Q: What sequence folds into this?
């Protein structure tokens, strides 16, 4: 169960990171880091996961 939850969090985190790439957000005026911070703040569960595993430092 723990491994399945971890795998799902990794998959969700990967999708979130990919959604922050510049080519997926043309002309929005934000940097990758700004988009990532904004999206993590919108998703507390992934923010906690990222913080616990030092994924987005």
A:
């Amino acid at each position: 169960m723990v491994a399945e939850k971890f795998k799902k969090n990794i998959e969700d985190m990967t999708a979130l990171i990919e959604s922050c790439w510049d080519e997926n957000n043309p002309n929005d005026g934000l940097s990758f880091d700004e988009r990532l911070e904004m999206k993590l703040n919108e998703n507390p569960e992934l923010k906690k996961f990222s913080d616990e595993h030092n994924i987005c430092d």
The chain is about 70% helix and 0% strand. The two ends are 27 Å apart (CA to CA). Residues 2-19 form the longest helix (18 residues).
